[in-house]
């Protein structure tokens, strides 16, 4: 997950490939709570790993549930409906799927068994209404104290052991603000139905009905079969109790699928589709009906029980007018698809957007206008007219994961009706951690851009000048890929040595380089499937790399591999000829300089920290010999590019060097 202030998305022109969805947030947190309340141990497969589920897992631990990671599975040992802990302070972040059902469950348990539970969250959670749920709990006999503004968290739930609940009359709850209030009651009230049935009646038109269907489906899997009369009246039978199903699998998140369905509809215009795994025709999630909306806009879709294939069909996309009550979360993606439509699109019955992680109607309108759309918003609708001209835009995400993921699709603006070429900056990309921590990495694995549109920062310089450290820090700050070209030459030399090939045999070493089986995983490097990270960092590997890099045939063999690192969102390339030969059109070229004495001193400190003996004189002599060899070689001699910015870091710290290069970058690549 990108933990950076912003990430710039270059103009992108196509997409294809395979994506495995993370588990559904809605299902994950419902399953965790049910497993925590049930008798026995539940093994949960494919649980979403995200901020919201971490919040729920932490809450279950605090309440005395057994919570154990078992590889990719989780083992949850439940309370069997009996409190193990009677007092706790729970911080629930911005997770509505944790705050609302835990409020109901703990209010009921405290009223019956005694307890004192304080629930709070981030500032935005304290702005999200919960009054309708509280208004349903208090007549039932639950004591719920407002610790802040009435009708909003934080809350204090308390009660005395041996209490009784008033279940003789139906419990009434509003359904026209959020279906999560009804879901919370459905998940909690089986705890009150040991002796008598419990009836819940809904006031007003229930919104987001498919999410209630998910709740009912999961309740049945945990042994509670709720009877219902449409979506107005729900009866929990007397004698209900939660029992573990033993094991349960969490579907891929259908709301998250919407971004990739939209991606296929917009950008899968070649031969291969966007192939989505983890959700399909058998899904219990209402947001799977987003597929129908995408088809209405022109997407070509094939699907099976656990997969969906999407190609572009109609182009431009067809404008739609749609009542989105059945897909409230996924409908946000339609608002961005509307940028690529042949006319205005209108999404209605989305009042629930205003009480989500942010006021999503207002937020979506503001950010779509930034990219050039004309937007009209109302209390429960939004209308989007595609841009007449696209603009670079810095997208505010409001600490809302769906805002970040939806608006990333605006980066495909070169494909629009009025072709764009705009950069889309996503602020606070880490907010996607709420449901899809690896969203941007997944998007970049599928997306393609013209090489000239993918920014490159070339960092060149002599050995031990600190270019690797600088390049790595710059890449981390910007969320860009990193090319350590020296590692490629070291790997080529190591592979040739492993094969018994003399390093002065240029044709043979070049053949090894051309078929180099090399894989990068974070800071680990694998050669022919073997982790060679430490071997490549050894001083001897650098000396061998300097020898093979002088061969023109080897440099030519590795050239294509180096170019392949240029992928969205951008690249920082570190080497000796990145700005002169490999990426002559790089947006920014930096050439590091430092005296041989200073470089030798730095290298000596590195070696000492590794327990390797060396002398300053021998290191300086070796560096000067390498410099002479690199500068005099016939192929790509070491020298600054004509348009490179020189950075003498002899007296600068790495942080000072990084700050200066980032300043240069902001001047070269501004958001207009």
Q: What's this, in brief?
A:
The protein is an alpha/beta fold and 672 residues long. 36% of the residues lie in helices and 21% in strands.
- Which spans of ≥5 residues are poorly predicted at pLDDT below 50? none
State the strand order across the main sheet: 27-31-26-32-33
Helix content: 25-40%
Straight-line N-to-C gap = 27 Å
Molecular shape: elongated
Largest sheet: 5 strands, parallel
Shape-level CATH architecture of the largest domain: Alpha-beta prism
Radius of gyration: 29 Å
**SSE class:** alpha/beta
Strand content: 15-25%
List the domain count as a whole number.
4
Name of the CATH first level of the largest domain: Alpha Beta
* Global mean pLDDT: 92
Count of individual helical segments: 22
Return the CATH topology of the largest domain.
Answer: UDP-n-acetylglucosamine1-carboxyvinyl-transferase, Chain
How many extended strands?
33
Describe this protein with a few key phrases.
4 domains, UDP-n-acetylglucosamine1-carboxyvinyl-transferase, Chain, five-stranded parallel sheet, four-stranded mixed sheet, 672 residues, single chain, alpha/beta, Rossmann fold
Describe the model.
This protein has 22 helices and 33 strands. It is of the alpha/beta class and 672 residues long. It folds into four domains: 216 residues, Enolpyruvate transferase domain (UDP-n-acetylglucosamine1-carboxyvinyl-transferase, Chain); 225 residues, UDP-n-acetylglucosamine1-carboxyvinyl-transferase, Chain (Alpha-beta prism), CATH 3.65.10.10; 131 residues, 3-Layer(aba) Sandwich (Rossmann fold), CATH 3.40.50.300; 80 residues, P-loop containing nucleotide triphosphate hydrolases (Rossmann fold), CATH 3.40.50. α1 packs parallel to α3 and α5 packs parallel to α6. The model has no long low-confidence stretch (mean pLDDT 92).
């Amino acid at each position: 997950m990108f933990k950076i202030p912003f990430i710039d998305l270059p103009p992108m022109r196509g997409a294809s490939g395979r994506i495995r969805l993370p588990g559904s947030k809605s299902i994950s947190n419902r399953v965790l709570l049910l497993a925590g309340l049930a008798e026995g141990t539940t093994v949960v497969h494919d649980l979403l790993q995200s901020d919201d589920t971490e919040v729920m897992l932490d809450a279950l631990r605090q309440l005395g549930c057994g919570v154990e990671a078992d590889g990719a599975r989780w083992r949850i040992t439940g309370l069997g409906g009996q409190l193990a802990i009677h007092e706790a302070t729970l911080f629930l972040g911005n997770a509505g799927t944790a705050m609302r059902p835990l409020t109901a469950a703990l209010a009921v348990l405290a009223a019956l068994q005694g307890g004192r539970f304080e629930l709070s969250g981030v500032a935005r959670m304290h702005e999200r209404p919960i009054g309708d749920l509280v208004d349903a709990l208090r007549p039932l006999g639950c004591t719920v104290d407002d610790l802040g503004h009435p009708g909003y968290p934080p809350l204090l739930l308390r009660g005395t052991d041996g209490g009784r609940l008033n279940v003789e009359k139906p419990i009434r709850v509003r359904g026209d603000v959020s279906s999560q209030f009804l879901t919370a009651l459905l998940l909690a009230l089986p705890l009150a139905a040991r002796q008598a049935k419990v009836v819940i009646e809904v006031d007003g038109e229930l919104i987001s009905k498919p999410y209630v269907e998910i709740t009912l489906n999961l309740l049945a899997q945990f042994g509670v079969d709720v009877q219902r009369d449409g979506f107005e009246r729900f009866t929990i039978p007397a004698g209900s109790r939660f029992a573990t199903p033993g094991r349960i699998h969490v579907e891929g998140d259908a709301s998250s699928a919407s971004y990739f369905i939209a991606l296929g509809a917009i950008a899968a215009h070649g031969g291969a589709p966007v192939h989505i795994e983890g959700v399909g025709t058998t899904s219990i999630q209402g947001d799977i009906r987003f597929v129908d909306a995408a088809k209405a806009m022109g997407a070509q879709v094939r699907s099976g029980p656990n997969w969906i294939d999407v190609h572009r069909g109609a182009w431009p996309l067809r404008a739609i007018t749609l009542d989105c009550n059945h897909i409230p979360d996924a409908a946000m993606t339609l608002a961005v698809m509307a940028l690529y439509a042949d006319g205005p699109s209108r999404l209605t019955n989305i009042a629930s957007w205003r009480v989500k992680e942010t006021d999503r109607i207002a937020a979506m309108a503001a950010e779509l206008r930034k990219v050039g759309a004309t937007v009209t918003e109302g209390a429960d609708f939004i209308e989007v007219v595609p841009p007449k001209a696209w603009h670079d835009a810095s997208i505010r995400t409001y600490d809302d994961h769906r805002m970040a993921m939806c608006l990333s699709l605006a980066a495909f603006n070169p494909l629009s009706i009025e072709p764009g070429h705009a950069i889309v900056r996503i602020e606070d990309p880490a907010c996607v951690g709420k449901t899809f921590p690896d969203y941007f990495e997944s998007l970049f694995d599928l997306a393609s851009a013209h090489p000239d549109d993918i920014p490159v920062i070339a960092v060149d310089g002599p050995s031990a000048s600190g270019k690797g450290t600088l390049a790595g820090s710059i890449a981390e700050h910007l969320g860009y890929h990193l090319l350590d070209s020296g590692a490629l030459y070291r790997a080529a030399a190591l592979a040739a040595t492993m094969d018994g090939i003399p390093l002065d045999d240029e044709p043979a070493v070049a053949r090894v380089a051309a078929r180099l089986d090399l894989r990068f995983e974070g800071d680990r490097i694998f050669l022919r499937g073997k982790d060679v990270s430490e071997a490549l960092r050894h001083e001897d590997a650098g000396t061998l790399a300097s020898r093979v890099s002088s061969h023109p045939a080897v440099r030519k063999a590795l050239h294509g591999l180096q170019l392949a690192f240029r992928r969205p969102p951008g690249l920082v390339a570190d080497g000796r000829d990145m700005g002169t030969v490999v990426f002559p059109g790089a947006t920014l070229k930096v050439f590091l300089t430092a005296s041989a004495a200073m470089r030798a001193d730095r290298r000596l400190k590195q070696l000492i920290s590794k327990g390797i003996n060396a002398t300053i004189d021998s290191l300086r002599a070796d560096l000067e010999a390498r410099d002479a060899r690199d500068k005099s070689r016939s192929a790509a001699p070491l020298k600054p590019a004509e348009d490179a910015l020189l950075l003498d870091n002899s007296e600068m710290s790495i942080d000072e060097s990084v700050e200066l290069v980032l300043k240069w970058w902001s001047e070269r690549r501004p958001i207009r």
